[in-house]
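To: structure desk
From: M.T.
Subject: fold request, one chain
Message: Could you run this one when you get a chance? Sequence is below, nothing fancy, just the single chain.
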Amino acid sequence: MTTVEVPHGSRSVVLTVSAVIEETSDARSLVFEVPTELQDKFAYKPGQFLTLRIPSDRTGSVARCYSLASSPYTDSAPKITVKRTVEGYGSNWLCDKVASGDTLEVLPPSGVFTPKSYDHDFLLLGAGSGITPVISILKSALTEGSGKVVLLYANRDESSVIFAEELRALAEKYPTRLTVVHWLESVQGLPAPEQLATLVAPYTSHEAFMCGPGPFMDAVHRALQSAGMPRTQVHAEVFNSLSGDPFADVAPVELSEEDAADAATVEVELDGETHTLSWPRKQTLVDIMLAKGLDVPYSCQEGECGSCACTVLEGKVEMEHCDVLDPEDIEAGYILGCQARPVTDNLKIEF
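Reply: Done. Structure tokens follow.
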């Protein structure tokens, strides 16, 4: 029995696990009960994730991000799916310790691995537990869009296919729109870029979303590039273990008069509203937005999760850490708000 009664920061909340679903021998789903007063705060987009605070005897707690496998359009409650990883403290704790009725501390939904529109065809690629954000997008595209959806799903063997029955039912429900292609390592070996390129070649006009282990992602990137899919149509979800504590409230940064006088000016568009802010050179974008009481999306503040990704429309910033962004993302104007500091005097940024 695990119970949390009081959150450790002003942004997090305590949610009850309403159901635990054993998906495979090494994967389970946790369904959360969201009280009425938190429905708006926990409204989510397909492909987003939740950050969970997991108790630790060694460090007090660790923070881990888990994708939502549910869809806001088809499922009544948010659901994450967790697969055990070798020596993975967070995943093993959640698989061993959590039961229905337990409570966990959770940050609101976050992440930018989500379609801007459903008015086109999709090529979805997942491996192992990388299916979790992918199936959220898949169900949403089938419900909200009218295009075709192709899923390529790689696993070790047939017994490790998460959501096998749900995918079978969806394929029967949408026979002309959904195509599911399973790749089993036990039968076909590890997927090579050349083999994947042949499979994805007919779908280069689709919008591609991928999630999975590093080698799989590398192979898919190379396959899509080889097949001629434009980089602007390719979206990848990357997770890193968070080293900081995103549940702790951030202390305001003390600034000298000189720092304040040398500040840049930034127009930030957030949730359809534009805010004009003074941006001191030593502060990050997330710092100044939090100081102004804005509900800026962020989780780790370490440049490790991508929650605070946004787009520079005008001006230039510098970033200390940005490993979760591809070079193509940075070239397209994407930045991490928790790592960005102003270079130019005037900027426009959009979340």
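Reply (cont.): The mean pLDDT is 92. Let me know if you need anything else for the meeting.
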